[in-house]
Amino acid sequence: MTIKTALMGAVASLALAPMAYADGHEGERGRDGELRIIYWQAVSILNPYLSGGTKDLEASSLVIEPLGRYDPDGNLVPYLAAEIPTVANGGVSADLTSITWQLQDGLLWSDGTPVTSRDIQFTWEYCTAEGGGCAQAAKFEGVTSVDIVDDLTVTVNFAAPTPNPYGPFMGAQSPIIQAAQFADCIGPRAPECTDANFGPIGTGPFAVTDFRVNDVVTFEANQNYRVASQPAFASVTFKGGGDATAAGRAVMETGEFDYAWNMQLAPDVISAMAEGGVGTPISAFGSLVERLEMNLTDPSPEQPEGVRSTAQAPHPFLSSALVREALSIAIDRDLLVEIGYGQAGRPTCNLVPAPAIYASDNTSCMTQDLERAAALLDEAGFAMGSDGVRVNADGVRLSILYQTSTNAVRQDFQALIKGWWESIGVETELRNIDAGVFFGGDPGSPDTFQRFYADVEMYANNFDGTDPQSYLGQYLCDKAPRPDTQWQGENINRFCDPAYDALWAELATTGDLNERGAIAARLNNMLTAESNTVVPLVDRGRVSAHANNLGGVELNTWDSELWNIAGWYRIAE
Q: Which domain holds residue 248?
C-alpha cells in the first residue's frame, strides 16, 4: 500500500464527521445558569503550551480551541476549521508534504476581533521559538513553515512526506492562541506573560473572569461564540484541589458540583458513592497508562543548579539497564490493579496500550519475580549491605526518592512498591506533592514532574487522537526539559538514543498502517521492555462522574473530557 493510498483510506473516511452537540435544545445562551466543575488537581495555568498537566489542558479547552478535535470514537471533527483536510478533498497534498487548513468564515475571538490565518501561523511561531520551552513541541516536529494563503487559509509544510499531518492544531494539546494577545510573549518571555497565560482570549464557549492559581477559575459565557444558542450555561465555576474522594462525593452524594474528573478511587468506593443517587460515574478505556518514569540523570541536590537532572550528570545507578529491569519485575501489577482500579484497570507493560494496531505484544513485566530482580542487582554489581541496602564497589547505595502527586490510590501504590523494592535491597523514600504543583509546569518550582528532582516518579497521561506518533516523539533527544527550555519538554526522564530518534523519523514518513503499527510497537519496546526507562503499571480506564440532571456529557478518552462542553445543558426535573 502506498503512503497516499493509506492516508486516503485511513483518514478520508473520518474526515467529514460533523461537529455536533447532543443537547437537541434551542434557546438563549446562558439559560441554564451556573455549571460547577471540580478537578481535584487544581488548575495552575490556562496555557497548554506552558504545561503538560491534564488539568491545565482541559481547563484551557473551555477557552482556546484547535482547528479540529477527536470525538469519543477517535474520529477527526472540525472545530475552528471548515472541514478536516484530506488527500481526497485536496487539503493534503498528493506528496504528503503539506496540509492546508481553512477557518470557518466569521469566527470571532471573545474580545470581538476576527480570527485569522495569522493567529494559526503565530501559534506555530510561539511554540517553536528558541528558548520558549514549549510543552507541546512534539506536535510541531517536522514542520518547516506555516504559510498564510489568505485571511482564512494556511498551509503547513513538512520537511518530508508526513502520513499523519494532524499533529499541529489538532486536539486539546495544540489549540490556536491569539497573535495580538501573545505578541510580546515569544521565547524566554513566554512564562512572564501572566495576563495572557492566566486569562487567554479565546474562541471557545467560555471566557475567563477570574483565576485564583491552584484554587478556582471562574468563566462566563462567551458572547461571541459561533453557535447562538450555546453555551447553555451562563457561567462555570471550576474548582480545584482536595482529593478524588471529596470530588466524587461532591457530585454523587451531596450534589454540590455537576461534574468531577478523574475518579482515581478504589472501585468499591465509587460504587458506594453512586448509591447516593444524585450522580453517575462514567468510564471508558483509551491510552491512559499509570507508569513509573526512571530519571536517567542525577537529581541529587549536591549537583549544581543547571546541571542537576540534566544530561550533564548521568544517574549514579539508574543509568544501569539491569537496575531498571530489576525495579520493574519486582512489582506485582495484578495486585496494583486489584487494590487501585478493579474493573477500571488492566495490568500492562506498554506505554501505548491502544489502539490495538499500535499496541505491542510485550508481556515481559507481567509476572512479579523478586528472585530474578535480586539476581539482576547482583549482576549489576550491587551487593546486599549489613543494613539491608545494596551498595556497589564505589560505595553507591541503591537509595531512591520516589515521588508522585497526592492521591489515595497513588499513595497505596507507593507503599506497596516501596515494600517490594526494599525486599530486594533498594532503600526507598516516598514523597507526594500537591497535584496542582506537581503538574503545574511553573519553571521556578523545584517540585514539577518536568523538573524531576527525584529518582523515580509516577503519573499517567495520554495522547490526543488515535495515532501515537507525536506521543512517542516526546522521547526524542531534543525534547528533554532543561534550564534553557524553562524546564518545559516532554522527555521527562532525559532518554536519548539515536536509534530511537532514527526509528521515530521512519514512523513519521511511513504510510502503510500495518507498518506504522509495527514501528510504533518497536518504539514502545525500546522505551519499556528493552530499556525499562518507562515502567508501565496499569492501563487505566478514565472514570469521571456527572450529576444526574446534567445532559450532553460524552466521555472522551481521545481528547479533552470537556471537548463538547458547549453542548452540556441542565435536564429539567
A: 22-278+548-570
CA-CA distance, 71 to 74, in Å (whole number)? 5
Question: What's the pLDDT at 18?
Answer: 34
State whether 289 and 274 are in the same domain: no
DSSP letter string, 312-350: TSB-TTTT-HHHHHHHHHT--HHHHHHHHTGGGEEE-S-
Our measurement of the distance from residue 568's CA atom to the centroid of its chain's CA atoms, rounded to an integer in Å, reads 23
Strand runs labelled E in 126-177: 143-150, 153-158
What is residue 483's three-state secondary structure? helix
> Residues of 267-302 as b/e, b for ≥16 C-beta within 10 angstroms?
bebbeebbeeeebebbbbebbbbbbbbbbbbbbeee
Inter-axis angle of helices 244-252 and 408-423, nearest 10: 150
Residue-wise pLDDT for 274-307, tens only, equals 999 999 999 889 999 999 999 999 999 999 988 9
Which of helix, strand or coil describes residue 459?
strand
Do residues 331 and 204 share a domain? no
- pLDDT value for 25: 55
* Share above pLDDT 90 across residues of the chain, in percent, rounded to a whole number: 83
Residue 404 lies in a domain: no
* 90 assigned to some structural domain: yes
Q: What is the pTM of this model?
A: 0.77
* Cα distance between residue 107 and residue 224, in whole Å: 8
Whether residue 429 is contained in a domain is answered as no
Residue 59 lies in a domain: yes
Q: What percent of the chain has pLDDT over 70?
A: 95
C-alpha angle with apex 477: 471 to 324, nearest 5 degrees? 80
CATH number at residue 218: 3.40.190.10
* Same domain flag for 49 and 92: yes
